[in-house]
Amino acid sequence: QSALTQPASVSGSPGQSITISCTGTSSDVGSYNLVSWYQQHPGKAPKLMIYEDSQRPSGVSNRFSGSKSANTASLTISGLQAEDEADYYCCSYAGSTTYVFGTGTKVTVL
Amino acid sequence: EVLLVESGGGLVQPGGSLRLSCAASGFTFSSYSMNWVRQAPGKGLEWVSYISSSSSTIYYADSVKGRFTISRDNAQNSLYLQMNSLRAEDTAVYYCARRSHQTDAFDIWGQGTMVTGSS
Question: Strands, DSSP E only, in A3-85?
Answer without folding.
Answer: 9-12, 18-23, 35-40, 47-50, 64-69, 72-77
